[in-house]
Amino acid sequence: MKHFPNHIAVWMDHHQAHLIYLKTKDEYSIESLESTYDARPRIDGEEATGVIIGKYRATNNEYKKHNIENNHLQEFYDALRKTLQKYDEILLFGPTTAKVEFFNILFDDKSFSGKRISMESADKMTAPQMIAFAKSFYSEEVKK
Fold first, then answer.
1. pLDDT digits (tens, 9 = 90+) for 54-70
2. Residue 124 CB coordination number (10 Å)
3. What's the predicted TM-score (pTM) here?
4. Distance between CA atoms of 50 and 53, rounded to whole angstroms?
5. Domain-wise residue ranges, the chain
6. Considering only the top CATH level, what class is 7-36+49-143?
7. pLDDT tens digits, residue range 6-29?
């Protein structure tokens, strides 16, 4: 029976991450980490103070909204990075560009330099599908 003590798989998008801990081939657990990121947040007291240019609308709040979004994503990625530090093999998969953004953060972090980080595209999945995907990926890795 193959053991995966230092392997973890992470299905992620910008709103959540599902961490799949593979203990053995048949033993696993799954944990979720939620992000506070909201792609279209409504800021209290905000009103339609904008300028219409042709068919487009520009507001004074674009810079502020962008910074708020980036701060929420950074908090999410930092929490996820801290959780993954103790693993040697990390699989990032999911439907959005979040996995690529997070991969770049890990790539720049010197504490992850000796670790093997893989990235795969995947659709939205149920928990059993995520687990099957992770098991399949690491089973293929063992054969190589």
1. 676 666 566 777 777 78
2. 11
3. 0.78
4. 9
5. 7-36+49-143
6. alpha beta
7. 889 999 998 899 999 988 767 888
